[in-house]
Amino acid sequence: LMHRMRPEGACLVRRGDRWRVVRPSPILIASRLAEPQRGVVTRDQLRAGGLSDRAIGRLIQSEGLLRLHRGVFAVGHRQLPPLGAETAALLACGRGSVLSHRTAAAVWRLVDEFPYPVDVTVVRGNARHPGICVHRTKSLDRSAIRIRDGLPATDPERTLLDLAAVTSRRELELAVDRGRARRTRREGRLRGLVDR
After folding, report:
1. What is the pLDDT along the chain (196 residues), one digit of tens a residue?
2. What does the DSSP assignment read for the chain?
């Protein structure tokens, strides 16, 4: 018995003088796709990974895939690692979505707790996602977006501006003070946001 690994995860197995392709199981494919995404994967990613709709359906039925949002699944269990729910929300909202408002404030450590539902800002789009607070904007300048812990989020200044619309002045002042203590942004710009 002799094995040769193939790049897509399949193996060529030799038995005697014959070679046979052995493909990985659907749950293994799903796990490999979800691993770099904090345990979550989309239906489109599963299809691109070679799984048929029928195979995906069987994984859902056997609880190998657990639905988090439309087209977004946890692989194996619902206990997601830190930032797993936020990753799932971004995948559900699609390309160009960013963490914002209270969620971005938590990512930047301007507030103590991660909120539920997850706050995500999208440019255009009308889809509703239960469990996600979707904020729509006509435009979002790329300079207002940063990658934090591997996820796109509004930068601290834009986050505080968004936070001002959904929180009390006192909570905003506390977030600004934390931003200043962490030297997240320039002092004058942060104080100016509170005074608006």
Report:
1. 333 434 456 666 777 888 777 778 899 999 999 999 999 999 999 999 989 999 999 999 999 999 999 999 999 988 999 999 999 999 999 999 999 999 999 999 999 888 889 999 998 776 788 889 999 998 888 999 999 999 999 999 999 999 999 998 988 888 888 888 876 555 555 555 555 4
2. -EEEE-TTS-EEEEETTEEEEEPPPHHHHHHHHHGGGTTEEEHHHHHHTT--HHHHHHHHHTTSEEEEETTEEEES-S-PPTTHHHHHHHHHH-TT-EE-HHHHHHHTTSSSS--SSEEEEEES-----TTEEEEEES---GGGEEEETTEEEE-HHHHHHHHHHHS-HHHHHHHHHHHHHTT-S-HHHHHHHHH-
